[in-house]
Write a structure and sequence with these properties.
The structure holds 2 protein chains of 2 kinds. By secondary structure, chain A is an all-alpha fold. Chain A contains 12 helices and no strands. In chain A, 84% of the residues lie in helices and 0% in strands. In chain A, helix 10 runs antiparallel to helix 12. The radius of gyration of chain A is 24 Å and the shape is flat. Chain B is built from 9 helices and 9 strands. In chain B, the strands form 2 sheets. A 6-stranded mixed beta sheet of chain B has the order 5-6-7-3-8-9, with helices on both faces. Classes of the chains: A mainly alpha, B alpha/beta. Chains A and B meet through helix 8 and helix 9 of A and helix 3 of B.
Chain lengths: 263, 250
């Protein structure tokens, strides 16, 4: 059994955790309440700031007209496509670059330029080449997520313990065996953290694409709202986006926890 | 009993090419390893000790000279750290070499299982390396090396990552297993005491380029395990000699 002091210590740890959680919730409640009160007493102009109750009303309205789920589904679906394709392409390209160090060295400056280039600048070209449709939104998100994935995953591949690589060589392993038995599994954590970044990158890309071309999606909702000066719609879009991105992030986080037990 | 040669190295020379120029790492290095013999190579750091092992297991090319394995003797390489893969169980780690060489038969797997059982890891075959102590991990690494049934073991500072006490215990452990399995060994170390306590013969190398400075036949009275050997009365004498040979300066 634990000593009394240790029990006190454990209780203190638990209490601290609860206090932090309560403070976090209070902060959100305080923010929403202040916003609502300021709006209620006309201390802020709700035409440009909206208010929590109006956001709620907008959500209910969207729900009743069945538009809410179309928009969310559209954005989430496109994000998942871009996320999955981006991850696969990114890992494949990183693998090719790890395999061929000549190619990796040649392409290094290009990767850096591509990574630092704001991909939104390519938007207009993509729309002209591919057309104002879903494909060009996904392509835009892909451009954003793929480069980051390549760089992060390749970094992980290159950080493989040189002593273990020596071990594989001494055992007579082929490059293929070294990759599948050592490099890929040992980069597991890097790949997962690349996925985490990739989720938010894909969402950014999709929303950006929706700003430019779409007829549906949360990005479109925000853009449309701003064009008709319906700030309720704009802020509702942002709130939905915040919720959607948090859920997606936690899904990857959960996946990481689930898979990383043996790593 | 006539000693049987298992490995001959003749006039080995190794030059590395770097941007700064050519580096002569090993020069004029010759020696024979006999079956069942335990040879230690000691020398100051950077003297080319590890280069010799890398050449023996084919990771580095020879610049000049020759290396001959007699009767198709094979080698197993044990590195500075246990280097177990944390995503593989102990058994799967030990089967790695067999998988790579594509010789993972039921018979070979049984051989590895028997090794694990014999050397006290039978209850841990399905554990992951992180759940094992440093000493057990080192033992698993040794079994991984033994799995491919090599005739010669190359030990590259095998205990340098361990703390002092563990190091003594593990070197004792590894020594006993190697002797039981009847392997020939070349061990590279910078630890003079470790070399005297384990080896039958010690080759002292000079500073770079590594050349043979002296060879000692280690004759300890009541030779037994490495820890016991440290108590032998000749121990200090050898230590002093080799210390002088290495000519350390701070």
């Amino acid at each position: 059994m634990y000593s009394e002091e240790h029990i006190r210590y454990l209780k203190k740890l638990k209490r601290n955790k609860i206090i932090i959680l309560i403070t976090q919730i209070m902060l959100a409640v305080l923010f929403i309440a202040t916003w609502q009160l300021l709006a209620h007493f006309n201390l802020i102009n709700t035409f440009i700031t909206s208010s929590p109750s109006r956001v709620l009303k907008t959500i209910i309205n969207l729900h009743q007209t069945n538009n809410l789920y179309t928009h969310i589904f559209s954005t989430v679906f496109e994000t998942i496509i871009s996320f999955s394709v981006g991850t696969i392409i990114g890992i494949v390209i990183a693998t090719i670059l790890w395999w061929n160090s000549f190619l990796s060295k040649v392409l290094d400056p290009y990767l850096i330029v591509l990574n630092s280039l704001p991909k939104v600048a390519l938007g207009p070209i993509i729309i002209i080449w591919i057309g104002a449709n879903t494909t060009s939104i996904v392509v835009m998100a892909l451009l954003i997520s793929v480069i980051v994935t390549i760089i992060n995953v390749l970094q992980g591949f290159k950080e493989t313990d040189p002593i273990k690589i020596k071990l594989m060589k001494a055992l007579g392993a082929t490059k293929y065996q070294t990759y599948f038995k050592l490099v890929l599994p040992s980069s597991f954590n890097n790949i997962i953290s690349a996925l985490k970044i990739n989720v938010s990158m894909s969402l950014i890309g999709i929303v950006m694409g929706e700003f430019l071309v779409s007829k549906k999606g949360i990005g479109y909702l925000i853009m449309y709202g701003s064009q008709v000066f319906n700030l309720d719609l704009v802020i509702t879009g942002i709130v939905i986006l915040a919720i959607v991105s948090a859920i997606m992030y936690y899904l990857v986080y959960y996946l990481e926890k689930k898979l990383s037990t043996n790593n | 009993m006539k000693k049987k040669k298992i490995l001959s190295i003749e006039n080995l020379k190794k030059i590395y090419h770097t941007k700064q120029g050519e580096i002569l790492a090993v020069d004029n290095f010759s020696f024979n390893l006999y079956k069942g013999e335990f040879v230690a190579i000691v020398g100051p750091s950077g003297c080319g000790k590890s280069t010799i092992l890398s050449i023996l297991c084919g990771l580095e090319k020879i610049t000049k000279g020759s290396v001959t394995f007699h009767n198709n003797a094979t080698i197993g390489y044990m590195l500075q750290q246990d280097s177990l893969f944390k995503w593989r169980t102990i058994l799967d780690n030990c089967l790695l070499g067999l998988e790579i060489k594509k010789t993972l038969t039921d018979e070979n797997k049984q051989y590895v299982l028997n090794l694990l059982k014999t050397y006290g890891l039978g209850d841990f075959i399905n554990n992951y390396p992180t759940s094992l102590s440093g000493g057990m991990r080192q033992r698993a690494a040794l079994i991984r090396t033994l799995a491919t049934k090599p005739d010669i073991l190359l030990l590259d500072e095998p205990f340098s990552a361990l703390d002092y006490q563990t190091r003594l215990a593990v070197s004792d452990d590894v020594y006993n297993i190697i002797k039981k399995e009847g392997k020939s060994v070349i061990m590279v170390t910078h630890d003079i005491a470790e070399a005297i306590s384990m080896a039958d013969r010690i080759i002292v190398l000079t500073k770079r380029p590594g050349k043979i400075k002296k060879i000692y036949d280690i004759n300890l009275s009541n030779k037994s395990t490495p820890i016991e050997n440290r108590k032998a009365k000749e121990f200090a004498h050898y230590y002093e000699q080799i210390w002088k040979d290495l000519d350390f300066h701070v």
